[in-house]
Amino acid sequence: EEESLRAQVKDLEEKLETLRMKRSEDKAKLKEMEKHKIQLEQLQEWKNKMQEQQNDLQKQLKEAKK
User: Fold this and answer.
1) Distance from C-alpha of 3 to C-alpha of 7, rounded to nearest angstrom
2) CA of 44: how far to CAs of 15, 34, 37, 40, in Å?
3) Is 10 helix (H, G, I), strand (E, B) or coil?
4) What's this model's pTM, rounded to 2 decimal places?
5) How far apart are CA 36 and CA 47, in angstroms?
6) pLDDT band, very low/low/confident/very high, at 60 (cuts 50, 70, 90)
7) What's the CA gap between 29 and 53, in Å, rounded?
8) Distance between CA 2 and CA 13 in Å, rounded?
9) Mind listing the pLDDT tens digit for each residue in 25-35?
10) What gap in Å lies between CA 57 and CA 49, rounded to an integer?
11) Where are any strands of DSSP class E within the chain?
12) Is residue 39 classed exposed, middle or buried when 0-12, 13-18 and 19+ CB atoms within 10 A define those classes?
């Protein structure tokens, strides 16, 4: 009985360690995802600014051709 309980405790400790490792990996992945999310937002802002500038330049070009 005691040996069975010891084996069960050892098994549970191994499972707990596995879960801790996975949780640590998940934290790293979440941090990386947050970084990519910020980069995406910055790129979207930059894209919008570039589109506005392109529109302004096209308007200026039309005016210059008149």
Assistant:
1) 6
2) 43, 15, 11, 6
3) helix
4) 0.65
5) 16
6) very high
7) 36
8) 16
9) 999 999 999 99
10) 12
11) none
12) exposed
